[in-house]
Amino acid sequence: MQADDAARQLTQKGHIEAEKMGLWLAKNYAPDALLVSPYIRAQQTAKGVAKNNTFKFSETCKDIIPEGKPQIAADYIETLIAAHPACNTWLVVAHMPIVSYLVDQLCVGHMPIFNTGAVAVINYNEQTQRSEYKNINAPDTV
């Protein structure tokens, strides 16, 4: 990992992909809650996604950085879901490898490799605290 990984910026292509996925999310899922890494490129991605989405809840979370602990992140996400019942669809903007490990924490046996800008769709049942992995969508496939 680079020493300046936290400060790395999105490329022009990354900005375009963020806006494209934001539009796709708005049309298909309308996320109303956002949890985003403090790293610059994640913040820039969230800003691009937000051009086409309105969030009732938004928070920067240091637990979803590349070297973060997926169990802590999963527990925190589940806590936020319980604390914000008005939010039905959550978007987590983070990085590899934590996003793959996070999906596996929530949906055991599913550890997708994310292309840049990709979105994994997971159905989470708050009553059972179980998740179902649906699919992964990338900017070049939506």
UniProtKB/TrEMBL annotation:
Broad EC category: hydrolase
NCBIfam families, per database record: sixA
The entry's keywords: Hydrolase
Record EC number: 3.1.3.-
UniProt key word Hydrolase: yes
Top-level division of the source organism's lineage: Bacteria
Name the UniProt record assigns to this protein: Phosphohistidine phosphatase
Example of a GO cellular component annotation carried by this entry: cytoplasm
A GO MF label: protein histidine phosphatase activity
